[in-house]
Amino acid sequence: MVAETEPSNIETQFLLDALQRGHRTDGRGIYDYRTLKITGGSTSGLVTVQLGQTRVLARVSCTVTRPYPDRPTEGIVQFNAEMSSLCAPHVDHTMRSQEVTVTRMLERVLRQSRAIDTEALCIVAGHKVWTLRVDVHILDDAGNLVDAAAIAAICALRRFRRPDVTVDGETAVIHDVRDRNPVPLSIHHTPVCVSFAFFGAGELMVIDPSLLEEQARVSWFTVTLNAHKEVCALNKAGGVALTHEQIKRCVQVAVAKVEEINEKIQEAVNA
Q1: pTM of whole model > 0.85?
Q2: Residue 257 burial by Cβ neighbours in a 10 Å radius (0-12, 13-18, 19+)
Q3: Cα(111)–Cα(251) distance, rounded to whole angstroms?
Q4: Rounded to an integer, what is the distance from CA 243 to the centroid of its chain?
Q5: Cβ atoms of residues 145 and 100 within 8 Å
Q6: Spatial contact of 165 and 53, defined as CB atoms under 8 Å apart
């Protein structure tokens, strides 16, 4: 039997009726974030994040490569998101678009915001640099993949340790981790995503949408902030326009949520 990929009209109307009364179908309040659990793996750079029933695993690896010709003193950071074929009923129809969406958001949030010090990844200018690869595996999709994937990726990067290197001229010696302690990455700041979903004509809003809410939404808005309350990125998708007041309200709510999430990220990194 083919699984339904969209909610029925009755489900959607029930969702909207509940939101108009200030309730959500999973029992949360409008501004309630689901329970966030961050678990570090047995190796550096391996992290599992669970946001409600959404589960994401992130793994960071590194190799030595040649730098890009136009950036000879900067290392390379690559992102890749993959969805398990069993992570949600709708995955057969939207898997590729979801993977692309998550990958592009990670690139914008972590690379374009200059969260990672790419110059610190340079070994020999113009010849050898570290290339970091961040693989995000989506294990269960119960909504709000972007937030969960971003948390998993930044946690994995902060927990990752690369091999130490000794450079003599243009010769570089990469030390085995058994001989010399590996080195943490240089991270400028920790960007955190907080996503909102809008319904109806845009007058109804929730934070951290569930899968059902994502399927019924008319637009969504993601605010990315760091611990210094600096806006790193804003991303809007969907056909309903947002007012200045709505955007301002989203940012205000996100500031409070980012502070809570950063505390859990710090606990996971120090664990």
Answers
A1: yes
A2: buried
A3: 21
A4: 26
A5: no
A6: no
